[in-house]
Each structure stands twice: as structure tokens, then as C-alpha cells.
Amino acid sequence: MKNIKDYDLEELKNELKQIGEKPFRAEQIFKWLYQDKVKEFDEMTNLSLQLREKLKENYTMCNYKILKKQKSKDGTIKYLFDVLDGNAIETVLMSYHHGYSLCVSSQIGCKMGCKFCASTGINFIRNLTSGEIVEQILAVEQDENIRISNIVFMGIGEPLDNYDNVVNAIRIINNQKGLSIGARHISISTSGLVPKIYKLAEENIQCTLSISLHASNNEKRSSMMPVNNRYPIEELMQACKDYIKKTNRRISFEYALAKDNNDNLDDAKELIKLLKGMLCHVNLIPINKIENGQFDKSSNENIMKFRDFLNDHGIVATIRRELGSDIDAACGQLRRKNLKQ
Ligand code: SAH
User: Fold this and answer.
1) pLDDT(122) > 70
2) CA 107 to centroid of ligand 1, rounded, Å
3) Strand 87-96 to strand 77-82: parallel, antiparallel, or no bridges (unpaired)?
4) From ligand 1's centre to the CA of 228, what distance in Å?
5) Considering only the top CATH level, what class is 2-60?
6) Beta partners for 152?
7) Which of 17, 62, 110, 257 is the most buried (most CB within 10 A)?
8) Is 235 a catalytic residue?
9) Can you give the pTM of this predicted structure?
10) Nearest ligand 1 atom to alpha carbon 254
11) Rounded to 5 degrees, what are φ and ψ at 331?
């Protein structure tokens, strides 16, 4: 059966047309789904009984079951959701002074194979649909009785490898009749799928693009991120420059600092050369150790030195707060699960 949450407003109007209904019904349904957050078609009381029956016959609502909920010492909450096909994904809720941020997953598993990340490896299962992405937000808002203000596509998966569903989910999240979260409060993080960066620049969505850079030369980057063999740094940087030119939006570069690997001042110098003059910001992430991982976290002293060196040379850099590492909810620690194993 089709998931009613897979459609953005325009698509839903078309769907309804096909079952002989007027387009304004789509707006009513959208409001029930994303503003009132109902879980059953029967709760949509301004629709006729007949229409509700028709909807039940044709669509599911894909309400997630919470399999597990863990709370970190710092207040971060990690959810394990049953996506209803024998697989489970993780979603992380973070609380900041400016509101709640939700880190959503975009795929069940990941194909990218980054050496420092627990979400990846040989176990890619499938893309999440738009509705399955959006459902993570609905389920958490309902469970905690809160309104989420920021969405980051930094959970399991490579969002630009599931391009259409991610962009469609953003349209639902962003729509004023949908979840109504401003595009500027939505970030997509990518390991660097160059053709998709060009495509995203054409979408006219004002979301923030984050690039997982992590190294400033090809040899080092390829040793950490196999995707660099396909799209080397020169091509990636050109795509970023074009993206900035086209959208006038600042790019955020993520750089996870690993001890004795990419954290000394020569690395910083190379990074400065690469980013000089670009409309950007560097987000330094103390690398989180993962099971069987070959990388260790840099010392705090080194991390601060690295940041200061970048700032002193005109590159704005901040250190990302480490949230939820005690419950394996921090960057790179999320994993998909198979419920049948
Ligand atoms: N696939 C996307 C989004 C998911 S990861 C991407 O690669 O951008 C979100 C961020 O966490 C990325 O910058 C990723 O490189 C980083 N990350 C992954 N593993 C990490 C680890 N062990 N420690 C710190 N950051 C990590």
C-alpha cells in the first residue's frame, strides 16, 4: 500500500484527483498529518466518512513504533524506530538554547564506506522514502510533545545518494501547510557527490549545505573516504564554488579531527589554502571513536590550536559540541539494525 506521507502537497492533490476528489482535500489532509499530527484517517473529522474509507483502502500512515529510547547525560535522546519492514533506523534529538534539532536518517545503511563512520560498510539495505524521513520528525515531536526547529540530514545514509526522496521530504518539511520548518533551518550533509551538488544548486531550496571534507589533499581524503576516488577534491571544490555562486549561500565544511592523521598545523595550512576567499565556515568535529575504528580523537589542545590557526588566517571555524557520545548518538556512531537477526 502507498504511504500518504510520501507525497508533497502538489503530488497529494494529484493523488486525490485520481480518486475523484477535489484538490482542497489535499490541503485538509496535509493539515491533519503535519499540524494536528493525527495517527488515523478516522481522526480527520472534516472529511466525509466515505472519503476516509477510500483513503484507508488506498494508503497507510506509516506510524513508527519506538523500539528503544535512550537519554544521554547531556539531554540528547536517541530513538530506534521500527520502519515496519524488519529494519530499524536511528534518529537523534538534540537540545540547544535556540531550540530542538533533529538529526534524521536518509537511508537504511550507507554505501559510502567512510573509514571512520559506523553507519556504513557492506550493509546497505535501501533508501528511505520521503514519508519515512518525515515520519522521524512527527514521531519525535509527538513522543516528547515538542516542536522541532532545526533538521539536519546527518543521520544514517548519504542524503544526496537518495536525492529525490530527500528533496521531496524537504518540500514537505518546509511547506507552510506541512511541518513549516524554514529552509534555512534545514541542513543537508554530503560526503561529496559532485553531480548532485550541481543539481541541488538548481532546486531553489534555501537549505544549508554541509560538505564532509575531513582532509585537504587527495591522498589523505581518499584514505579516509573512498568517495574521493570518484570525486577528487578539485572537482568537489569547483562544485562548491559554483553552488555558492548560484545560491549565494554559505557552505559549511565539516572536518573531523583524528589524532596524528589530519590534525596538525600543516593540515590546517593546506585547508586554509583550499578554502581561502570562499563564503564558508568550518565545523571542526572531535572524531568519535567507533568499534574497530582506526582513528583516535585529537587532544583538546590540538583541536583548539587547529581552530585558532584557521581563525587567525581568516577562515571562520568553530568546534562542534559533542552530544550524546555516551549513548553512541554522536556523529558517525549511528547504525541501522535488522530486527530479524
Ligand atoms: N553521509 C553524510 C551525512 C552523515 S554523517 C555525510 O557524509 O556528510 C554526518 C557527519 O558526521 C559527516 O560530516 C560525517 O563525516 C561525520 N562523521 C562520521 N563519522 C564520524 C566520527 N566517527 N566522528 C566524527 N564525525 C563523524
Assistant:
1) no
2) 14
3) antiparallel
4) 14
5) mainly alpha
6) 103, 187
7) 110
8) no
9) 0.96
10) 13
11) -50, 130
